[in-house]
Amino acid sequence: MNFLENALVKRIHASVAREEYFEETGDAFYLVDQVGRKQHSVMFDCKFDETAKLFLSLPTITKNIYVTITDGDPKLVRYVIGAIEDHEIEECAHIGDVILLDAPALRKFSICGVMLLAASLFHALDHVPNHLIFDGEEYKFVSVCFLTDFEHGLWKQEGHDALMDYFTKTEKDLISFGLDMN
Known about the structure:
Elements: H1 7-16, E1 27-32, E2 38-45, E3 53-58, E4 64-70, H2 74-91, E5 98-100, H3 104-107, E6 111-117, E7 131-134, E8 137-148, H4 149-158, H5 160-170
Parallel strand pairs: 4-8
Antiparallel strand pairs: 1-2, 2-3, 3-4, 5-6, 6-8, 7-8
């Protein structure tokens, strides 16, 4: 069976991927975690930025649907989403949480972790509902925002509101990963 033909995947896609922003078809992918569980995700090309992709986790082992739009390396972004799912399984994951990731590939860009936010913070995702109910199960949409060392320090010292104010003041580009894709 084509995973992208799955009814839940179609509902998730319909809830997130506006036709004017994202391609209709995507690339399904999975990672196998340390205990053998499959962590599924889908990547869609963005129509508004040729270097950016929409990433969606598919809730096969968790109840959150992690969403991000980024120009980051697809393998690295999928790894990060898998690490967030691992965190959710071990400790739970909620909007507002900061998850530190010790990955040399992220450190190259001064990225030390992620903050989980409402999907509506991304302009292209401002229509995404907070949750989706499918077959009696509730799944929450949670966006993934990459954090630099500076941003993490600000969050740690001054709190969530100060970081959100900083994002607003500096007009943080939630998509840019600092990668040169050429």
